[in-house]
Each structure stands twice: as structure tokens, then as C-alpha cells.
Amino acid sequence: MSEVSRAINEALIRRIEAAISSATVRRSAVEFDWPECHAKRCSHRHGDVDAAFGTMKYSIMQAVRGELQYELTTRPDIADEDDTPEQTAVYTLATLLQRYNVRETSTFVKAAQLIVDAYPALIPVLGENERAA
Ligand SMILES: [Zn+2]
């Protein structure tokens, strides 16, 4: 595999992982299928763990599809008509950091890599600041 296609695949893998990370399900969508009772010969209804997992898988599939088709995770369209370009940039970056569940240093690097992948125009700008400092 060439370096270029390997790099593209890495970027694609990061996008898919970010989409999976951003997938959520509402508690109400799964709670009645979440088995909690361990009583023997209990006659109550106990839900269907396959149904609960199916709901989660569907959410993950929708997130991956939305990212691959529309870049919903890595290039979220969250601008309001009245927003200034600066507000749009700030809200977009804030949304991205939240979606990537930034909690630890390695995750910060992953999130930053995804943002740079999505907005390559940042590279010369941030590189220029580094040299000027
Ligand atoms: Zn029971």
C-alpha cells in the first residue's frame, strides 16, 4: 500500500472512530430491554438484550453513515445565520471537542488530528504562528 493511500486510510479510520464515539442512545430507548432481574423462575418480562444492543448498533451505524456521507461528525454544520465567522469557528471547534470525548492527553491528540484532517487550512496558519513566536 502506498504512503498516500495509507495516510488516507488512517484519516478515514479516524473519522469512523470519531463517528462511533459520537453515537449515543437515549436511556428510554434501551431501559426496558436491559435485563436486571436474576430471580429464578420469575414470570415477569425481562426485556431482550439483543433488542437493546440492536438499538445501540443502529445508532452507531447511523453515525458512521452520517459521517461518511455528510461529514456530520468531523465537519458539523452548526452555524446560525446571525453568527459571525468567529462564532461559527468557536462553536464548531467546541462541538468537535465535545464529540470526541476529550478527557485525556492521547484523546486530545486524536481530537486535534481529526480537526486538522477536517480543516487542513489550519496547518499553515498554526505553523506560521509557531515560527513567529
Ligand atoms: Zn424477574
Question: What's the gist of this structure?
Answer:
The protein has 133 residues and is mostly helical. Helices cover 65% and strands 0% of the residues. Helix 1 (3-22) crosses helix 3 (49-70) and helix 1 packs across helix 5.
SSE topology:
Layout: H1 3-22, H2 27-30, H3 49-70, H4 85-99, H5 105-118, H6 122-132
Helix pairs in contact: 1-3, 1-5
Bound molecules: zinc ion (ZN).
Mean pLDDT: 86
* Main sheet summary: none
Strand residues, percent: under 5%
Distance between the termini: 38 Å
**Helix and strand run:** HHHHHH
- As residue ranges, the low-confidence spans are none
Total number of helical segments? 6
How would you characterize this protein structure?
With 133 residues, the chain is mainly alpha-helical. The chain has one domain (3-132). It has six helices and no strands. The chain has helices spanning 3-22, 27-30, 49-70, 85-99, 105-118, 122-132. The two termini are 38 Å apart. It binds zinc ion. Zinc ion binds at residues 37, 39, 42, 44, 46.
Keyphrases for this structure?
65% helix; 133 residues; 0% strand; binds zinc ion; mainly alpha
